[in-house]
Target: Cyclic nucleotide-binding domain-containing protein
Amino acid sequence: MKFKNDKLVGDFWGGLAAMLVALPSAIAFGVTIYAAIGPSYAGLGALAGILGATALGLVAPALGGTNRLITAPCAPAAAVLSAFAIELVQHGVAAPSIVLMLTALGLVSGLVQILLGFMGIGSLIKYIPFPVVSGYLTGVGLIIIGSQIPKFLGVPGGTAWWRALISPELWQWQSALIGAVTAGVMITAPMLTRVVPAAILGLLAGVLSYFGLATVDESLWVIADNKLIIGPLGGTASSMFEAITGRWQEIGELKLSQIGSLLGTAFTLAVLLSIDTLKTAVVLDALTRSRHDSNRELIAQGLGNVASACAGGMPGAGQMGATLVNLASGGQTRVSGVVEGVLSLIAFLALGAFIAWIPVGALAGILIVVGIRMIDRHSLHLLESPWTLMDFIVIVVVVAVAVGYSLIAASGVGVALAMFLFIREQLSSTVIRRKMDGGSRFSKRVRLRKDMAILEKEGYQSVILELQGGLFFGTKDQLYTALEPELGKRKYIVLDMRRVQSVDVTAVHLLSQIRDSLIERDAFLIFSSLSHTLPNGRNIAEFFDQMELTSMTDHVKVFGQLDDAVEWVEDQILDQGQGMAPTAEITALELKDLELFKDHKEETLIDLEAALQRRSLVKDEKVYSFGDPGNELYLIRKGAVRITLPSPVEEGGHHSLTYGRGDFFGGMAFLSQMTRLNDATALEDTELFVLQREQFEVLREEHKRLACTLVEELAKVLALRLRYADKELMAMQE
Model:
């Protein structure tokens, strides 16, 4: 119970601290939007900000799944809505209609967010490239700064920021002084204390500056027609209810065409608010080692914005500053967000009359500092490297379009440039990870010396290409350039698809042309590692089969692993070199027939053969297991044995080598007298000669020359195997 109470106490103080940060900003954002309609609407804007903080704080945390997240009116919403209001004013739309349009815009954007959440788009929004997000935030920051400069200087409404700067005769020094004091205190406050939020201290400093000026100018004590302050809100429950219901009584005046014109702006606003929220949620996850549900959060944010619009408030999102303050002040659950909403309502009802005296210049000072902090100054580091220069250009273009035209256009331009950068990156990367001649890359099937000599000599018949990345229309020519020189001189072209991330129809069409070219020469196109699922959910093997690339002909072979493909090619080359028919009956070898003893006379092997045991194994029978004593040497008379290493991730162990008829295995442990470090299993019915260590010791005492010869032959073959292994490693590093 105590732990639960501790959480509630932490949530209360966290919500209180978050309210102190979010409420002044919400008022400032609301004034920014509605003051664009006309100075007399500044009070309505402050009311919209407060109602937005209340509705968002009550609804979004209650339905969302992210603990400690504070949802309140935010800068992107202020930037989009104020630009929208200015555009409507320029088109001569009546002020009451603009108010209705702003309400409808918030409502539609909330509905769009709900739709995005139900469609699962929340999981994708967070993948918008950093340069685009950086450009958005910087553009929003600059728009806010530009919109606040006239208010900061106290110039008449409708004056452009650049004209306000070059027209000092229009400045009201009182407003500029109040704004400067507010901004100065807000910037320096964190250096002195973090107990009280900087925005609160800045706002108090601005209010005190105003009343200080009022002591020498009695006109500042008059609230009516005072352009330096917000003006009356009507801070009572009855007036608030009247503001809400009165707006919806007039909603019927909106035409369908007007609502239709909102859709583009509403979609842009919904995306910006969603990005702002999910960005804050990701940061919160990193700080608290938690994990949020993006789609659930989008639905909750959308419902919060719908509720805010219905209450006459402005839309918002998960606020980074207020959320971090909540976290630092002890907030632990979603209750802290609800507390912030409740306290915002109480503050409005209790302090409505006082809020009317808040100077517009003080709010402008707060927002200018907020806008400056939104500018991504760290992106300047992208200029330090030629590799990131294009990313910086994307940021600059998005900012330029956002400031010079609109955030709606900036969103489209940003996504288009991000697609361009992605394609550019794909084109600059190679799809050929490694290209190896068949004579330098062998399978895990251990071959006899004479077979290895044939494979080295005939290795030119095959080539192995390990592919990577995306095989699509942009990399088609690169793939064809790598394959074209091989088409006329290779009988076996092996394509390893293990590292391929995507394949499109254009790439499949190219591979079909290569297949047809090889068929004309009686050559083979061989694929390995096709049956894996790509990041987009597509299975390459199924896709190739659907496009009839791997079907309808025996000249296309598909293998599960690259080693299996290489082994098949080796078998084909060896069958050609030895003139063997693949279906010939295979008999068990005698000792004199083994390559290890091919240069020895039959009579010299009689004593060795007497020391050997004959052992038969059925398919899948274990020869030995990991950890067994290495006291036996195995000579394969017939069949094959697979060597595997224990592996926690591969069922049955990791395939290391395969030994076939006429070869031997177990030599390293036999000579060193150490335990086995792998497993040996019969791949098929197998017959072995087995030399036990005790018999070898007897042989060494009675036939020293024969024992030395045996050890020498074993060492030669082991050295030869190491030589081929070194050759493969060198080829793989090229």
